[in-house]
Amino acid sequence: MRVILERSNLLKSLNHVHRVVERRNTIPILSNVLLSAEGASLEMKATDLDLEVTEATPAKVERGGATTVPAHLLYDIVRKLSDGAEVMLKTDEDGNAMTVTSGRSSFRLQCLPQSDFPELSAGSFSHIFRLDSVALKGLIEKTQFAISTEETRYYLNGIYLHTHEVGGKLKLRSVATDGHRLARAEIDAPAGSEGMPGIIIPRKTVSELQKLVDDPDVAVTTELSDTKIRFTIGSVVLTSKLIDGTFPDYQRVIPTGNDKKLILDRQSFAAAVDRVSTISSERGRAVKLSISEGQVTLAVNNPDSGSATEELAADYSSDPIEIGFNAKYLLDVAAQLTGTEAKFMLADAGSPTLIHDMADETALYVLMPMRV
Amino acid sequence: METTATILHADLDAFYASVEQLLDPSLRGKPIAVGGGVVLAASYEARAFGVRGGMPGRKARELCPQLIFVGGNFSHYQRLGDAAIKVLDDFTPVVERISIDEAFADVAGCTHLFGQPREIATAIRRRVRAELGLPISIGVARTKHLAKIASQVAKPDGLVVVDPGTELAFLHDLPVSLMWGVGPATKARLAEIGVETIGELARTHSGALTRLLGPAAGEKLAALSWNRDPRKLETRRRAHSAGAQSALGQKPAVARVIVPTLLHLADRVASRLRAKARPGRTVTVRVRFADLSAVTRSITLDQPISATTMLAEIAGDLVRGVLGDHPREKTISLLAISVSHLEESAELQLDLPLGLADEKRRPGSKKGLARFGADRAIDKIRERFGKQAVGYGTVALEAARSVPDEFRELAEKEL
């Protein structure tokens, strides 16, 4: 293989691809990126056996071929080369090493044979639809923070993507929960998504996808079956296994009868929560909300260091209530809301509380209180 | 490190047996053992015949036919243990009690009042003997580890002061089994590479020790063998963990044995956690097989627990995991549970009622709250009517125990 390409193109693609590669691998080939030069492009591919990212970038291919080299090493080298430079990648005759040359710099990297590189067989997809990147980004970002990290609840370690009929219209919904809080977002279901199975997209895939859809107006082609999903975003193709598990019936925890309505200015609320929680210890994180007509008092009590309170004007006219929440969970939700006001629908201090984004009816958050 | 030896380790000699001899003068000078089915403690007279704590009663009788078995006066153990440690408090505020009958004390700050550490130790021994009628041995050294070894060497009823210049000479001739952290298993492993004295251990290549004992234990023992022990006395020690263990003799590794034993252990551990309002996040179990080799396994939970049944179930999973990995071990001789990463917080994050299968093991779920509520009710009944008033069925129905629970409680008690 002998190929010449722009450093900036190589860097951009490697940046997308190399993140998939885990820093520690027991199987050496998984540390490597597969480079294949053919026609007028260089294709790069990396995998962790659950997730695979491929990207092709324009290149002058003087001699076609393929090899694999350590992904993070190659990325670090290319990152340090001077901007605007050209890079030549050339494999030895015997294929045991690859030379990276740019200007007066030259690096020799040890190769592993491309034939050892694992292929994530995608099989056939049952559904295909297109999403614009803004819509996809919304589905991810509004729910991602609630994904569970608990390994024993592996079926909560991702975003549940499924279709759901609301008032005769089909919606594509994303839901995530860690057992304490739940986030739900929805968009109109795109053509082609009808009848798709409900799938759980793993956390790592979600986070890679989120970085790839940063570009605002790219159409994302989504193909899926009940075991795999593939996103094609411009020149990048991300293929991932899905979590093999059953997402719980989340509808049952979304309260419908909460009748105590509290409306707060979102930014002042978030700032107040952040301020009073300064006093809280690392693990005791509860902030107590004492809600009465027209006002909320936030209080944090830490037996080791002291206490803090702050009063906040609020739109509230139901019976007074005291309820505790994890300060971090309140801040996480507040960070997702877009409107100037946040609406809380409360029942009592031991039941799920509903939080709505006043500017975006498609998003919804459920928060379980803390007992304080 | 200090330049003079000011750390005392005071250890009451054959404590339970000494108390029995104190209470009943007719037992003095005679070989006695506290216990019955199992020897819980043996007097020095009995030890001369080879009788040891933990030995089956029958074997003890074989070794020493005139051995006198006595039941336990548990309330006196606590009272006299407290009184002995109280004597240390009269000399220095820096006292760290580590069990019912032993404590460390640092006298660095009070030599101008009471004289040299040797004189203080002599005075303590004299007072404990005069006021309580009990023998106590004291080791004095610059480090906790060496002070503890010195008190073992001093027994029975003696005093050993290790001057800074003679530390290694003193330490290196002693057997490794005197070291903190060297039990029968470690001792046997060290013997395999020909290490029997602390000096031989000190001269063993660190790589060999690490390979034999693992990096943590290997480095620790190497440091201790050169008298490097940076641990300070912890006077206001908060418990870092709570644990309990049950020696089973030789029992088959089956659910019928394991489940009630774990529930009984969990009951003891969890009720202590609840009494202190300090639930814990890490559950550790220890399974010892027929050949006394042991396996430890732990899990760190998302939320701290203190409900008995949750602890018992989680421990059960861990034990099943151990047995699954050691399919050839059919017999177990000991089970232990300990809970660490204890937390203060009274705050509890409630769980969304998602109806998941593992909810009953979550303290914040409806089922978890119900389990905790039931345990609190048990605690209250026991406070009024005693430990035996109420308990879990499988535990209550289990055969009579060889070791009374009162005795276990003394040993496991937070001091």
TrEMBL record, chain A:
Residues 252-371 form the DNA polymerase III beta sliding clamp C-terminal domain. GO terms for biological process: DNA strand elongation involved in DNA replication. InterPro entries: DNA_clamp_sf, DNA_polIII_beta, DNA_polIII_beta_C, DNA_polIII_beta_cen, DNA_polIII_beta_N. CDD domains: beta_clamp. Keywords: Cytoplasm, DNA replication, DNA-binding, DNA-directed DNA polymerase, Nucleotidyltransferase, Transferase. Residues 131-249 form the DNA polymerase III beta sliding clamp central domain. Pfam families: DNA_pol3_beta, DNA_pol3_beta_2, DNA_pol3_beta_3. Residues 1-120 form the DNA polymerase III beta sliding clamp N-terminal domain. GO terms for molecular function: 3'-5' exonuclease activity; DNA binding; DNA-directed DNA polymerase activity. Its main location: cytoplasm. It is found in: Cytoplasm. Coiled coil: none annotated. One of its GO terms (cellular component) is DNA polymerase III complex. It comes from the Bacteria. SUPFAM superfamilies: DNA clamp. Confers DNA tethering and processivity to DNA polymerases and other proteins. Acts as a clamp, forming a ring around DNA (a reaction catalyzed by the clamp-loading complex) which diffuses in an ATP-independent manner freely and bidirectionally along dsDNA. Initially characterized for its ability to contact the catalytic subunit of DNA polymerase III (Pol III), a complex, multichain enzyme responsible for most of the replicative synthesis in bacteria; Pol III exhibits 3'-5' exonuclease proofreading activity. Forms a ring-shaped head-to-tail homodimer around DNA. Belongs to the beta sliding clamp family. This is Beta sliding clamp. It comes from Rhizobium loti.
